[in-house]
């Protein structure tokens, strides 16, 4: 089986509707993107995420950038994002552990009804921060760190205990199909059951507490691509206190990645936009683009002018 499917570029005209998600007078969802460190190209990905949220007209987006890894303590002490001011906190961060007061504020925010979106390597972060690991449920950890969830060949969910099987990883980047596992969830309700995602890392064998995990979508991790040979969770959410946390493990962007990147995939962009709206409101008003991909072709937005 070829790992390089056809790619179709969505013309600007066929993207009609993407920016028309809200009606006049509808209150915008406030979003804080936390960024500043990552083992991926956050300098590019954070503005892209902000732009794709802005384009819907549904969100009011702010960005909080952490100090650098080697910044003095005073800089970290001065960094105090006000999570409680926002409907959603979206993490594009994978770096130094946050200061204890920020961690406490974050836990309080979610416990009191806040909403969190973790994108790609954001679920790799904060090894040993138990409350964050409970919120994420499944994280990039080794096999001895926690349990693993996957779907077997009969699409039955399997819980593999810690110490058995592989730990967190991914094979070669490639385009792959994403399959809906909860068609009633508003994020996926009118999307194709199976659609082709652009070239990306396909995370496998994520580990953690794995408690109250609601799997919304999976992808088959082929052994041909260096994967596990089972269906791995791609999108899931977890209730935490009065709040909830949704994780999207697609979203790789490396420093040398050129167009079309993961963030040019119409399917991924749509799911990310809708996930941010849903986690805050339990509903989705952002329409499905006319160019949303099917099962056999990747659909990408037009290449930006240089």
Short description:
With 306 residues, this protein is α/β, with parallel strands linked by helices. The chain is 18% helix and 27% strand.
Could you characterize what this model shows?
It is a single chain. By secondary structure, this protein is an alpha/beta fold. The protein has a single domain (6-300), classed as Class I glutamine amidotransferase (GATase) domain (Rossmann fold). It is built from 5 helices and 15 strands. A 9-stranded mixed beta sheet has the order 3-2-4-5-14-13-12-9-10. The chain has a two-stranded parallel sheet with strand order 1-15. The chain has a two-stranded antiparallel ribbon with strand order 6-7. The chain is globular, with a radius of gyration of 18 Å. It starts with 5 loop residues before the first strand and ends in a 6-residue tail after the last strand. Mean pLDDT is 93; it is low at 12-24.
Helix count, DSSP H or I runs of 4 or more residues: 5
Pattern of helices and strands? EEHEHEHEHEEEEEEEEEHE
The shape, in one word, is globular
Oligomer: single chain
Radius of gyration: 18 Å
* Helix proportion range: 10-25%
- What is the total number of structural domains? 1
CATH homologous superfamily (4th level) name:
Class I glutamine amidotransferase (GATase) domain
Number of strands: 15
Overall SS class: alpha/beta
**Spatial separation of the terminal alpha carbons:** 35 Å
Taking all residues together, what is the mean pLDDT?
A: 93
Named CATH topology = Rossmann fold
Largest sheet: 9 strands, mixed
Strand order of the largest sheet: 3-2-4-5-14-13-12-9-10
Strand content of the residues, in percent?
25-35%
Low-pLDDT windows of residues? 12-24
Q: Which architecture name does CATH use?
A: 3-Layer(aba) Sandwich
Highest-level CATH class: Alpha Beta
Pfam families: ThuA (PF06283)
Domain ThuA-like: 31-279
Protein name: ThuA domain-containing protein
